Amino acid sequence: MPVQKGHLLQSPHVDIVVDDVILNDIVSISLTHELNKARVLTCRFRGDTALLHCRLGSIVSLRQHIGKPTSGVFSDDNSFLGIIKNVSPSDEEHQFIAFDFTTLLAESQLINFKAEDYVGEDLYFAAANACDFKYHGEVSRMANTSIDVSNLKSGSGVFITKDMNLFGWKTRKEFIDACFNEMKVLRDDAHHPQFAIQQFHYAIHKDNIMSFFAPDPLHKQAIPSLTLSKDNNNIPAKGIVSQIDTTKLVNAITVVSKTDSNIYAQRENASSIARFGVISKFIQLDTDDINALDNAAEIILRRFDKPSIFYNIVSVEPTNLHLGDLVRVDLPRLNIDEILPITSITLDIGTEVQYQFKVGERTLTIQEELEIVSNPTNR
Amino acid sequence: MASNGQQRLYIPHSTMPSAEVVAKTILVEAGSTTGANTCYDYLKFGYDTTSTNYHRGIITIKLPLLEDVFGDVTTGLYNSDTPVGDIENIAIRLDPGNQVLNLGKYHIYKIKKRYTQYAAGINGTVSSGGGHSSNHVQTDYTTWNSYATSEMSKDTDVDNLGYVFWDTPGAFVKGIAVQGASGTKVPTGSGSADLDQSTDYGHGANGIIHMFNVENHGSDNTITIPLKPLLDADSFTWGDTFRLLIKHEGAVDKGFGTSDQDADWGDEAHYNQQTLISCDASTFGGTVSSSLVQVEIIYQDAPPTKPIIKLSADPIDFRTPIVTFTTFPSDADIQTVALHHNTSNAFTFDGSGSDVRTNLTSFNSETYRDLESTNFLNNTGTKNYFLTAVASDNTSHVQGNVINKGRMACSGAIVNTTSIGTQVTLTVTGSGGDFSGKFIKVGVNWDSGASDKISDYRIVTLTEESTTAQITHTYDTSDVFQVKLFTVDRDGFRSDKTNAANNTVVKPIGTTDRAAVAKLSVSRDTAVRARYGDSFSVITLSGAQGYAVGSDKRVGTYLFKHNNASDANPLTTNPLGNNNDSFNSVSGIVKLRCNQDGREGTVLKVWGWCSVEADGTPVADNSANFDHYEWQVHSVSPSASANVVGTQAQTGDPSEDVYYKSVEFVALDAIDADDNGTATSVGTVNRYVLVDGAGNIINSEIRGTANDYSFGGYITTGDITVAFHDTNKTITRSSGSFLTDGFEVGDVVMIGGMLEDSVNNIFTKITALTATIMTVEDDLEDGDGSNANVKILKAQGPTLQVASYDESSPTFTHKIVPININQSSAVNDIEKGGADATNNAPVSTEVTQQVIFESEEYHTYDFDTEADARNISITNAVLSRRGGIAGAMPLGQGRYPISPTRTSLGLPTMAISVRAHTQAGYRKLWNLIQGDRYEWSTIDSKKVDSPDNSFRQLRLKIIDGTLNKDPSLANEYTATLNFLVIGELVT
To answer: Domain residues of chain A, as ranges?
Structure first.
């Protein structure tokens, strides 16, 4: 589907194949992708013949690129491979929704994940092993309906303990999500601010190739993949919208011992209070060590005395960015200059082409933060 | 081994210190009615014709306390649930001296008076001072007539000092004390309160406990006096004290037919008849030494109950034997409970044989771990061990059940080598033990070299008992790992921790020096050449999807290069990354420099907005002659000397300096022929830096070198010797130049190499730079002032933007360099980021991607050319820009909007009306509207004062249009076209 917008070399080209049959008369497509979720392809098309091919369970492949239709060096780092899960026929236009193979993990037969099989294993490889799943549905006529885990070679250095909430009857995705929920690494070194935590995520960026990645935006010398700035002329008018979330902001904290309510520590951040108003939090810890309570209060204030900020960005053109890639947002006029990971990407190709992504990472809860900081190695 | 439970003991005895037996003698001289106030430390009774004294023996017996008999009840051995053994019989034994004749009968009575136990014993010293007990029958002061030195009355609070006569409260003994020669009988008392003379102990209601005759006997013998009747009557128990009186009783003639037929029964021996018996201090068979009286006590002492044990393993370590008593031995005087183990079923009760005895150190526990430090179950395989428990009390031992246990052995086999992220399989085989090598659990320590505690083992439970199992693991780091394992049998006992057959060498994926995987993607595979400074002429290369292999690694830097070796058609990096901060106040000139000598042949095109006078003459925008900004492009080149700027950008003829308000795009038109990837004395890096007139960096990432990773920004010092300075945050090199190496302020660098102090192995940013001193923004440690073999490299990010001024089809090559996340644990230069750009470095394999930069020439529709060719005529052209001003009405009395500001520039659009005169003109307009034919359209906006000259040449992108058949001219078409102005035709 050559989309005739923009000049010739900017035209995006879209090829969709449903069960080995090329789908013609595509009206529009939308690809959305979020961290730890399946990429979703929504495709609108015409033609009853095409509708016959687009049945539930069909395997869909999508390739799209920008440039000449027959460049000879066609390369799509974001090609999509998925399964149709929803079909909506109508009189004129039809629509199907396909999910990438992450959906196989979500809908897999439940497995009893036992602690004894996993304790001591790197969370990364336990999750990778759970991803290594072959799809045995008869509807598929494609040879390769498994998830490719050959790229999962890094490891996280976080090893499974019996205390982690991983075990029992779960789908593969539930187990993987539980693994990733635990896959947080405390980076306590010269390159990071104190109590910096690196969170792992997963996504299928291309076809059926699973990727695990851990953005490190807090690295002092993090180098972004893209800098959005006025100088770079890549922020269109109204193309960036900040979303400031103060729900996790805390600038006054009281930490009280569970065993003795007379033992407590209180901390405040005056500058944060002056700027955002006082937002206090009360938590209890299972210790009567006043130093531990004080330290916990300090940790919380340092981590949560600023609001979390997300940016919804409409890009001037599609890029080869992926989830987790770092983006620097440099807007001196708004006193913004920070590096954040991409958390969602949306590509819409229809009457016009729109490429949007969202940057900004979910802030850990106070309890998660304390848990990791207090047990950095025993995780 | 158990007895029938009946035991006997003798007192006094050194093992029973609480027991006492005290024998005393009181006497009175014949004919006396008052008696002597003397008590003697010997035991005599009867009438001594020699001294004419009558003797009576008083024996005080204190039975042993419970603890002396059954042991310490506080040790835990004592089982209160079991009744204390009862006293079944008591007897006293006396040892009369030799030559005992026919002396008559003797009776035993119980003295009824209370007695007092002193701290110092029955014979303890009496004290009337301080706290003391009142005295009753105090042995040492007991005499014929009196029995106490003091007695506290219940009605007074002081002792009633003095003697209490036997006959005051009642006669000591009812009877005739003596019958003198005159035949007068002297009564010895009138009552019976002090001596029990009424209880029927089997001889009538006369208080006689026992009576015995002593007849002629020529040799030494002993007299046994059973006290069973007294015991039965008084129910003595352990610790009780009682006192007996032994006296000669009855006339001799009663016993032997003498003449005194009328003497009362119970009188002392007949006057002048020798009835004295004098007891010796004897040994009584060695049981008692030097005692006048031996007391024999027979009591019940049941043996302990049989201990029944179970054996299990500690559920945590699967090794420590845990003994559980199904039946814990129960007994009143149990002394020890011991665990005995042996390698055969042979046990002794004291551990004197080949068995090993381990006394329990605590009792009343649910489980016992006393075997933990023994060699019980030390050996694995075929050897069996036997275990039993033995309970012992004072007199007997009871052995419990016997358990037979053998621990199994195991072995493991695993591959010699594997890769990070690749699952390895350990094959476990069990052998020996109680279940022929079958096991139900496997414990594996995948890295026993790091730590080998039981908690380091991953415990896997098999679904079914087996002699073999396969366990998988995935290593996340590269190293040499010794795998250890154990197996656990159904009883919960494990084998020894056993090394698997091989060390497993884990290598990075691929070859040993490829600890990373590179991935290269491009934002587009085709782009138009950069003739007009368009952002869509830029292709972004991204290696962000590459990864380091191993959880201890991260990507240190990303390297890119290309193969377009034509110095006339170079590629350009970072065309869009221009910092225009220095032009905020006033527009200025721009210059170019290079870190290498002799690069004056390089030409850089610089697009941007330039300030000009009304006639287009360049001028700074703070000049009075400044009129407007124009989109222009000019060329600059570096000087022939390294790090020296060349001539500033100028117009052509006459040469005039150009003043940029902003630099928007740069592209190399040509690079010097020597900038060809060949190493010079300062390396291969050719880095061009665009600066303003003051030297402020506008763009420092301009490179075009082919076939060298310096193209992607990779710069390294190679091995140098430096000194770190903490206060100034400086790195001073001893030779060479950071500047000619190609470093610039603002670069992020990795300090690599094996440093004396690994805290200096950091990523940091250059804040100031001279040839020999690099100042960085992060803290450094001094160390000893000098570090050799330091490598400083420029860290390049995962993306690279590239443009090409000319048509080309380059192939990009990419690789990544991994480093250790934890620099202090790095053991070589490579892990500390000391890699260089050669293929010998431990980098990923290279990946490639081709792209195409095409010319726009054949895809441009030029209105003026078409008009000049008379294919069309332009009937109207309207340039418009919407938006730009926004104002808000004030509240209150305001009549005009306040604070109208230019919020943003609206989109520039152009509407053009044309008439097609020829088929060629009509065809091209058709193509323009149909699409997919032209990159853009161009049109000249003519000058007012010279209509033949263009004021601007606009580039247009069609938005929509109409093509109309004009009914008035059947052979012509009119078209109305709407465009977006995307730029100017400036090249």
So the answer is: 8-100, 101-216, 218-246+308-360, 248-304
B372-401 pLDDT, tens per residue? 989 999 999 877 899 999 998 777 789 999
The pLDDT value given to residue A232: 66
- Say which DSSP state B657 is in: B
A106 phi, psi to nearest 5 deg: -70, -30
Range 242-261 of A in CB contact (< 8 A) with B: none
- Positive or negative, the CA dihedral A318, A323, A328, A331 is positive
CA A245 from centre of chain: 18
| Nearest by Cα to B528 from B854, B848, B888 | B854
Instruction: Return the percentage of chain A with pLDDT > 90, whole number.
Output: 22
Superfamily (CATH) of domain A218-246+308-360: Bacteriophage T4, Gp27, baseplate hub, domain 3 (2.40.30.150)
Judged by phi (left if over 0) then psi (alpha if -120 to 50, else beta), residue B523 lies in alpha
Mean pLDDT for the stretch of residues B399-413: 94
A245-273 pLDDT, tens digit each: 777 788 888 989 888 888 998 888 888 88
Residue A104 — very low, low, confident or very high, per pLDDT cuts 50/70/90? confident
The residue of chain B with its CA nearest to that of A222 is B797
d(CA A366, CA A301): 10
Peptide bond into B654 cis (omega under 30): yes
Average pLDDT over residues B315-327: 93
Q: What mean pLDDT comes out for the span B565-572?
A: 88
Best of A3, A4, A8 to disrupt the B interface by mutation (most B CBs within 10 Å)? A8
Cis peptide before B12 (omega within 30 of 0): yes
Q: How far apart are CA B674 and CA B567, in angstroms?
A: 9
Kindly indicate whether the ipTM for this predicted assembly is greater than 0.85, answering yes or no.
Answer: no
Report, as an integer, the average pLDDT of A301-325: 77
C-alpha separations of B299 from B232, B605, B915 in Å: 13, 120, 139
Chain A residues in contact with B554 by the CB 8 A cut-off are: 216
Query: Are the CB atoms for A170 and A102 separated by under 8 Å?
Result: no
A77 chain-B contacts, CB cut-off 8 A? 519, 521-522, 542, 545
Q: Which of A116, A151, A233 faces B664 most closely, judged by CB atoms?
A: A233
> For residues A215 and A36, is the Cβ–Cβ distance under 8 A?
no
CATH number of A8-100: 2.40.10
b/e sequence B187-220, b meaning 16+ C-beta within 10 Å: ebbebbbbbbbebebeeeebbbbbbbebeeeeee
Distance CA B483, CA B156 (A): 88
> Encoding tokens for residue B870?
């008379």
Chain A residue with Cα closest to B780:
A190
Give the sheet arrangement for strand B408-413, strand by strand: B408-413, B423-432, B468-474
Q: Please give the pLDDT value at position A140.
A: 47
Distance from CA of B523 to the nearest CA of A (A): 5
Number of helical H runs and strand E runs in chain A: 8, 22
Other CB atoms within 10 A of residue B1 CB: 11
B-contacting residues of A 127-156, CB under 8 Å? 128-129, 151-156
What is the distance between the alpha carbons of residues A92 and B559, in angstroms, rounded to a whole number?
51
Tokens of B902: 């230019």
State the pLDDT at residue B829: 75
pLDDT band at B247 (very low <50, low <70, confident <90, very high): confident
Contacts of A66 in chain B (CB under 8 A): 523-526
List the single residue in B with minimal CA-CA distance to A156: B551
Query: What does the pLDDT look like over B916-968, one tens digit per residue?
Result: 999 999 999 999 988 778 888 999 888 788 888 888 889 998 888 999 987 77
